[in-house]
Design goal:
With about 160 residues, the chain is an alpha+beta fold. The protein contains 6 helices and 5 strands, in the order H-H-H-H-E-E-E-E-H-E-H. It has one domain (about 25-155): Aspartate Aminotransferase, domain 1.
Length: about 160
């Protein structure tokens, strides 16, 4: 006589290991390979909002590289500039803002780890986003210059 556990195990729908390892759950979105793909994958109502964020960043950092990083749209200029993403109730922006002059302005939108959450129920503060991007460009350039000076002291090159 089989134990009740053996009977339960016998009823499980077993599949070959190779099949289990190659199947992708249907509710998980595939990783986009470009910002265009990312924006196309969100709801129609949110697309114009993401496009306005992208356009705002692009105007301030025309030489920045667009890419997908951590499954989010990202801009890189002398390092990570900003990331942004669509969520159910807000547009998220990363990394946290550390510029002292902006901290009081972003307090309303600050998330639990310093990231920003712009509610979809409110107008997008594009002026604030412009100030954040300008501050991030300044921070990245200053960091690059500092790292370049340190490297040049020990015989390294300033060229990146």
């Amino acid at each position: 006589m089989k134990s009740k556990y053996k009977l339960l195990i016998d009823q499980l729908p077993y599949r070959p290991v190779a099949q289990v390892l190659t199947e992708r759950p249907k509710n998980i979105m595939s990783t986009p390979t470009s910002i265009d793909e990312y924006i196309a994958s969100v709801s129609e109502e949110v697309r114009p909002i993401l496009e306005s964020v992208r356009t705002t960043i692009r105007k301030l950092a025309p030489d920045a590289e667009e890419r997908i990083s951590y499954r989010m749209p990202a801009f890189f200029l002398d390092g990570a500039l900003v990331y942004f993403a669509a969520f159910k109730n807000h547009i998220g922006m990363y990394p946290p803002v550390h510029d002292e002059s902006l901290v009081p302005l972003v307090a309303k939108y600050a998330g639990p780890k310093g990231n920003l959450r712009f509610p979809l129920t409110e107008p997008l503060p594009l002026g604030l986003i412009r100030r954040i991007v300008k501050a991030r460009i300044k921070q990245n350039r200053a960091r690059k210059l500092t790292l370049g000076k340190v490297r040049s002291m020990d015989g390294g090159s300033l060229d990146w």
